[in-house]
Every structure is written in C-alpha cells, then in structure tokens.
Amino acid sequence: MKPLSRIVSRTVVLPGDHVDTDQIIPARFLTATTREGLGAGLFADWRRDASGSLRPDFPLNRPEAEGARILVAGANFGCGSSREHAPWALVDAGFEAVISTSFADIFRGNAARNGLAPVELDAAAHAELVASPGAEVSIALETGVATFPGGGSARFTLDPFARRCLLTGLSPLDFLLSHEERIVAYEDGLPRE
Amino acid sequence: MRPRTLFDRIWEAHTVVPEAADHPAVVYVDVHLIHEVTSPQAFSMLRDRGLPVRRPDRTWATVDHSIPTRQTGGRPAWLNAATRRQVETLERNCVRHRVPLFRAGDPGQGIVHVIGPEMGLTQPGRTIVCGDSHTSTHGAFGAWAFGIGTSEVAQVLASQCLLQSRPRTLSIEVSGALRPGVSAKDLILGLIARFGVAAGRGHVIEYRGPAIRRLGMEARMTVCNMSIEAGARAGLVGPDDETFAWLEGREMVPRGDGFDRAVEGWRRLATDEDARFDAELHFDASRLEPMVTWGTNPSMACGVSEPLPEPRGPEARAALDYMGLEPGRPLAGRPVDVVFIGSCTNARISDLRVAAGVLRGRRVHPGTRVLVVPGSASVREQARAERLDEAFLAAGAEWRAPGCSMCIGMNGDHLRSGELAVSTSNRNFEGRQGPGGRTILASPATAAASALAGAVSDPRPWLDP
Questions:
Q1: Cβ atoms A48, A72 nearer than 8 A
Q2: CA-CA distance, B240 to A16, in Å (whole number)?
Q3: B50 touches chain A (CB under 8 A)
Q4: What's the mean pLDDT in B252-276?
C-alpha cells in the first residue's frame, strides 16, 4: 500500500444515509479472484440503467466528477456485508478518501487497510460539503484537518493505528507477524483439545 | 474482582498482546471459516509473501455463495465460468495449504454459518471469524463471532490472529414472550425497526432477558445472525442448558467426562449479575406481530397487517418508490412473484419444519415461484428423513441443493427486475436478490403463507395452534 498523507481534490457528493455495500459493488461482481479492475462495478446499478446506459444525473457520472478523489457520503456509509471489494472498487475508481458523519464498522477497517481514508466529520462541516458538490477539499491525515474552499476547516480523528498504516504504508499483516513469539507463547498456554 | 460480561471474559481470554496507545490488541482466533468468495485474494496475499497457512487445523472451508443449487442435464448448473473458477480456486488453495474443505455434494457442506454449529465447531467462549458479515450467527452459542474483510482473512490465515480495538458492549434486554405464530425472525426485525440499522455500531450486543431464554438454539441463531443488520459486528447470547443440550454429541464437541468438564467451563462464562454494559436497550416482545419489511433496509419494517407508515425523510421516500409501495395500506394482500425460503438466517431444520407445516397438503399460488433451499446437506438430509421435501414438492415449490442461493443472487438464483419477493433472508437492500428486484424480509411461516396466497399473508391462520 502506498503511503498517503494529504489528499487534495474536488469532491463528489452522494447524499443519503445507510449506503450499503451491495450498492457500492453489487454481488455479481464478487466472482472475481483478484483485486484489480473492480472499479467497473462501483455503484453499477446506480450508475447505469437496466439497458446499461449511464444515468446522466447520477453524481459519479457528471463531468465534474471526473478525476475526483474524495467521495462525500451520508451516515453509516458501507453498512451491510464485509466485502472488501467495496473499498477495492472505490480505490480502483481513483478515490483516496470518503467523508461522512459515520461509517459502518467493517467498512471503516477495510477502507483504511486499502489506502482509502475514512474521514468522519461533524454534522455541520459535513452539511457544508454536501451543500457544495465539487468543492476543492484538502485532507491532511497527519494533523487530522480537512480544509474547505474559502479557508474554513474541520478536525477529524482517525484510529491511531489506521492513521499510521495510511501514512507509512505499514501492513497490519507485517505488524501481526512481528508478534510471532507472543503468539507462540499464547498457543503454548492453550489447553490441549 | 470487577464484575464482567460474557464478552469481557472472551476478550480477556483471547488477548495475545494488549491494546496500546499506538496499536489495537492482538486477538487470537480459535476458529476460522472460509468460503470461495472472500478468500481467493487472501490466499494470493499469502502467496505473494511466501507465507504458509499457520493453523490449517483451525481453518475450515466450504462452498456456499456462488455454487449452483440445481442441476441441468445431470450436472451442476454453473451460472458462468467465473463462479466455477472461484470454487476451483478455493479447492486448489485448500489442497495446497491442507485446509479441510467441504465440496458441493459432501455430507458436511452447506452455508458456512449453518455448518459451523452443526459440526459443533461453534462453542461457547470461542472466537470465530469468517469473511462474511453474518458470522455474527455463531454468537447464539456465546461465542464472539464476527465478519472480517479479505485482508483480515489473510492475516488470520498467516498468524491465526487479528488486530482489534475493544468494542463497547450493548445489552438488549427482551422482556415478555413471543405470541404464537411470532418467531425469532419477527423479533429481530422488530428490534431493528425499533432501534435502527446503526444502533449497534461500535458495539458487541448481548441479547438478554426472558424472551431470549425461551428461544431454542436455531431461533437464537436467527436473532444473532441479523446483529450486523443492526450495525453490530457481533451479537451474543449467554450459553445455558439449551446451548449445552444442542451441542452434546456433535462431531467436534468433547464426549463423556470431557463434555462435563467443557460444560463446567462454559457455565462460568455468563455475564455477572452486577456487570455493567456501555449501553442498554429494552424491548417488550409480547406485543410483536409477524413482521415484514417495506423498504430497502431492514429497519424499514412493520407488522404484516399494519398500514405502511408515511415516509419520514428522503431515504424512506426513495425506498417506497423503489419498492413500488404506497403508505397508508398494509402489505398483507400485496401480490408477490417469488417466495424464497433459505439463507443463513432461516434455512435450518426448524425453519423448514415450520414452512412445511404451512405448505403440507396445499398448493402454492400458480402465479408465485417458490424456492426452498436448505442451509446444509445435513439439513437437506434431515428434511428428507422427515418427508418435508415431499411436502414442498407436492405443494409446487422447488426443492434445491444447499447454498446461499437467492439471498445474495450470485449463483443464478435471482429475482428479475421489478419482481417482488417475500424472502426469509437478511437483506432487503436495492438489487440484493437481483438487479431491480424487490425484497420483503419475513419469517419462514410468513413466507410459506404468502406462497399459498400468492400475496403477502399473515401466517397465523395457517399455523397449528
């Protein structure tokens, strides 16, 4: 995972609370055996109608959404399944951060493990961003500050370990493996079954 | 000593490295369940680093999500090459890493959350994870069980551990007793309708109180299964005599003196009477009706004969619009195209007995397609022994091989756009059961009654008193 410290981008705003992972990437895209190319399935059933044509009014389809790296979404974003395909699809489509007032537990962890920053803002700052789609926002992960056009800013808190992983590209798997001795000691203490 | 909850005890017993300011706790995983959809990339991560599966003896694999549940010309009806490749990839990975695998057709195969308890792998006090959010099901036995992402699947394969920040605890105390014809499914839908889809975020739920104690193990699994639909990764029920009796004699459960010693240990797990939870909610089960969902998340639910509420907010309006429903009228009587009886929520033998009881000696409505998909090969076999399959087939329902099937619609069993289904599964999200499909979540009894009427129906007139 490449380290990520500052994200500067226009936003795409996807209003509505409780956007579930079946919307982020529908199940028919989960037959993949690799992580690549899942951006094609991102919001597939909202981006396209039944005939496969792009819906021009869907926020991600508007011309100004091209190249955006920050998604602004409603509360409890990413609820539902544990599919890591959801952040894989967002990252594959170019996103580096999702801003919301809250994230579903599994999605939040999956996102941070894949270089997608889950940025939780207070309701007032979030509402300001929802009201101004396409705003140029700067997210500093080290200091936990999001800066808006016009100079306003809002603070956010990332889980310290998730922040470290995002900032340094540290792999949680390597961190776990560095505790091999403790794991062996734990297993030695388990009752025999 | 400080009074403890069931969860506190499991957390403490599984902490390998305690939490610190700059990292979460390293937590040991007793049982790791894997399936074809969320494991291939995890095995690739291991291969890229040249890592082995650390504890193949604590890992079990099954196929469930993308496998066909029917045959054509005597062969499994694979949806496409991709689903087949996914299953073959799991088979290869399991052979390479010596992980036991239940293949389609094996007596032990089934939906991962049905077979874990069946084998007796799911035991009180254990930590159980799987790359599937409905892993919360196993909490019915007093295990801490939760869904994980694929990177975490790789972590567990490689280290048998996970990094976890300690979740907060939430007690949901359910008083009263369910009325006849009202089931565990109605209870969990009632809880989510009342408290919302984010009520459990950041928490582990412990379901408590007399209404929970009265539930059998399979009913408790139905409740715990949908904890994730209330936002909680895990939901637990304290183990009791009901739990121990259900487990006794199962393949992975100790026998004789070993069983008695295990029960002694399991009894000590219970939440202390004076233990404190971080949050508490209360619910009265005695007024609950059979529940149905009318929207596109599981909290959008009401009693089957209640008029649909006026939408509050844009999500509810959009949901009614998607579902093609109007407020002010009840769902009862609404024609349905498909009835699906299956999934890790409601495809155990007790669920099929209820459904068969309603359907036996009757015919499903000619305009309604009805699928009955058992949760495992063992459930299917038991249903055959009890001649439930005959009741389903004689009624005009399809009787399939075990798998997730139309709950997630990955294997070719799915709704067509615009179709309305009554489903015993767990998610009524837009398109969950097929692009453009519309899902009403309900109990097996309500689903079976709706199959007979060809319309959403209160099951109570069809049930034996």
A1: no
A2: 42
A3: no
A4: 97
Whole-number pLDDT of residue B1: 77
Residues of A in contact with B81 (CB under 8 A): none
Q: Which of B17, B86, B158 sits opposite A33 (nearest CB)?
A: B86
Which residues of A are less than 8 Å from B156 in CB distance? none
**Cβ within 8 Å of residue B458, ≥6 positions away:** B289, B290, B304, B305, B332, B446, B449
**Domain boundaries in chain A?**
6-188
Residue B294 has pLDDT above 80, yes or no: yes
Q: Are B426 and B395 in contact (CB under 8 A)?
A: no
What are the φ/ψ torsions at residue B17 (nearest 5 degrees)? Answer: -130, 125
Q: Are residues B276 and B347 in the same domain?
A: no
Q: What is the mean pLDDT of residues A161-177?
A: 96
Residue B23: per-residue pLDDT: 97
Which one of B148, B154, B431 has the shortest CB-CB distance to A82? B148
Give the minimum alpha-carbon distance from A42 to chain B in angstroms, rounded to a whole number. Answer: 14
- Residue B297 phi/psi, 5-degree rounding, is -145, 160
Provide the residue range defining the domain that includes B360.
Answer: 292-462
**Whether residue B352 is found in the same domain as residue B406:** yes
**Rounded mean pLDDT of B145-154?**
98
**If one looks up domain A6-188 in CATH, what number appears?**
3.20.19.10
Reported ipTM exceeds the 0.95 cut = yes
Q: What is the mean pLDDT of chain B?
A: 97
pLDDT tens digits for range A80-133: 999 999 999 999 999 999 999 999 999 999 999 999 999 999 999 999 999 999
Segment B175-182 mean pLDDT: 97
At residue B465, the pLDDT reads: 64
Residue A11 in 3-state DSSP? Answer: strand
Q: Which of A105, A116, A157, A170 to mutate to test the interface with B (most CBs of B within 10 A)?
A: A105
- Count CB pairs under 8 A between chains A and B: 169
Asked if residue B297 and residue B282 are part of one domain, the reply reads no
Task: Name which of B152, B162, B423 to mutate to probe chain A: the one with the most chain A Cβ atoms within 10 A of its Cβ.
Answer: B152
Residue A50 has a pLDDT of 87
The answer to whether residues B25 and B88 belong to one domain is yes
Residues 6+ apart with CB under 8 A from A184: none
Q: Which of B17, B201, B431 sits opposite A179 (nearest CB)?
A: B17
Counted domains in chain B = 3
Asked whether residue B1 is domain-assigned, the answer is no
